[in-house]
Write a structure and sequence with these properties.
Chain lengths: ~220, ~220
Amino acid sequence: MTELATPLSSTARTRLGRKRDRAATDRAALHAILDEALVCHLGLVVDGAPVVLPTGYGRAGDTLYLHGSTGAASLRAAGAGTEVCVTVTLLDGIVYSRSVNNHSMNYRSAVIYGTPRELTERAEKLHGLRVLTDHLAPGSWEHAREVNAKEFAAVTVLALDLSEASVKMRSGAPADPPEDVRGVEAWAGVLPVHTTFGVPEPAPELAAETPVPAHVSGRKPAPGR
Amino acid sequence: MTELATPLSSTARTRLGRKRDRAATDRAALHAILDEALVCHLGLVVDGAPVVLPTGYGRAGDTLYLHGSTGAASLRAAGAGTEVCVTVTLLDGIVYSRSVNNHSMNYRSAVIYGTPRELTERAEKLHGLRVLTDHLAPGSWEHAREVNAKEFAAVTVLALDLSEASVKMRSGAPADPPEDVRGVEAWAGVLPVHTTFGVPEPAPELAAETPVPAHVSGRKPAPGR
């Protein structure tokens, strides 16, 4: 199971900065991971201890947007000059090897370090909310009621630069040593893991004949793939 | 989008401890979330800054097991009396509301705080490895080559008590205020998100007639559901 441990390393922290020749490839991979996943894990230090919380996000260019209620303590901390770590992980498969020890996962993950800034300028904050909505529910910004003044005031939007970020991934077949490939009679291979969308479930108050709009019914789990 | 911000709060930290009447329900929910998900996000404080890394895990009773190469710096830190936060999140659906602001996600998440201890006693460490394997790949412990002495020495196994843990979830239809239900002509409902397994992909060296064993071909994404 050693390979499973690969993500358990802090040495990738500045990978994008260090390996210049891989930077463009990594940058595209970083964007692809962020655009495909829906949930990130936001890490903060609160009273000296780590706190990891799941939340939504959105990306535009090399900026990641986060948001939350103005009453959320962790979000206030994140917006007040505190360093955060945002990690996004896509699980692609379970890797069955000839040995228990070489079992692994195929995955793609992005780790972003930085200090978010809170958006206070109206146009910039509205842009952030739009990016967040377009990521969570593409098409909803045009379809649903717009954000009113009270709602706009009650939400905090943070922007995090993607300058310090790293990407890790594993793909493909199990990596058994030759002696195991020859000498062990066990099945080996990959069980793919997929994320899919089910049949839309209309809210109970909707009239029965209300059509499901195309931005919901036609949504695909992995944009651009 | 206010509801999306619900997880962005540190107030749930001791929920299981505080609300005694909900403890049994929450304990069952905690176990169910941990048993269904495959990846956790491990949070640590390294040089004063948060680090969040994806990794595998396993659960037996009220103990969570983590593992990694003995060379992994973060894992060494986690095993050396450092407090960690382990978060597991299952995304169940995208909630489309009448207003952009009320869009949300249906999800189940578990947050565990504690200081893991490294397992050094042979039987206990082997048990931990088995729990980890049974979670990642049920049936592989019996099917694949067992862990040899060299591999056993090269892996670090950590045990984390589930005593300080909290569960958060959202399910069901959008929660639009009456004035939006009456006055906004937008589709509202939930787009379910599912995790599924694809067709097993045998390793290239396997003979073409090698059958896929039942523990792989019959595997279901959500045990017990």
